[in-house]
Design goal:
Number of strands: 2
Order of helices and strands: HHHHEEHHHH
Strand order of the largest sheet: 1-2
């Protein structure tokens, strides 16, 4: 529990409350029902801002978000999103949680940032291609809506969860790319059902927070390296 003690800066608190406010307002305006969408969105944006601190609790919240998001995706016939988040993102977030807890830095309130070498980057790229090809045929079999975009979402999700497990600062950049894909994906749904505008807005907020998380992790990595060199 010591690892879950989180301290936010004023800028982080502002970003958090701003994101939550936008999500709540968009939900009240556009959503007809489905409180699960609002709950999932608030948990998701909270998970990102906590993960930006390098705190393991963020990964625990991602597990919860993945389950709720899987349910929402199922209702829209986005089986790719459902399979990805329930079958890959949620389990990998559990693995990432364990990895972050086992690799604390300093007083244990943040994770030790890991540097990915070029060989592992090539491995990630190769695995991404394999996963993408496999999921394309799986999603095609289930008649997934917007197949190409859904398949690309699987690839970016895989990169994000793998880099999270490896404690690389680039995990948030992969999530940001995934957010862009999901804004397009849910934007297409909104053309027929405006009640899902709140989901699209949610991922817009996710994008802003993931970009901040990438900046935060780069600062964290630089600080940890400076302290290591000083010692």
């Amino acid at each position: 529990m010591k690892n879950f003690n989180i301290r936010f800066t004023k800028k982080e608190l502002f970003l958090w409350f701003f994101s939550m406010s936008v999500i709540i307002i968009s939900f009240l305006i556009f959503s007809k029902d489905g409180i699960i969408t609002l709950v999932a969105s608030l948990i998701g944006v909270t998970a990102i801002i906590i993960s930006a601190k390098g705190n393991p609790f963020g990964q625990l919240l991602i597990v919860i978000f993945s389950i709720l998001y899987g349910i929402i995706s199922f209702k829209c016939a986005y089986y790719g999103e459902m399979i990805t988040y329930l079958g890959m993102t949620a389990p990998m977030a559990v693995v990432a949680l364990i990895s972050w807890l086992r690799n604390p830095y300093g007083d244990g309130k943040e994770v030790k940032v890991n540097h990915i070498r070029i060989k592992e980057v090539l491995f990630i790229l190769a695995m991404s291609v394999i996963v993408t090809i496999i999921f394309y045929f799986i999603l095609d079999f289930f008649n997934t809506a917007n197949l190409i975009i859904s398949t690309f979402s699987v690839m970016t999700s895989f990169d994000a969860v793998y880099l999270s497990f490896r404690r690389s600062a680039y995990f948030s950049l992969a999530y940001a790319l995934n957010d862009v894909v999901l804004v397009i994906l849910w934007g297409l749904v909104c053309l027929n059902d405006t009640s899902y505008v709140s989901v699209t807005v949610c991922f817009m907020m996710f994008l802003i927070n993931d970009i901040y998380a990438f900046i935060s992790w780069n600062r964290m990595e630089k600080r940890q390296n400076q302290q290591k060199n000083a010692v």
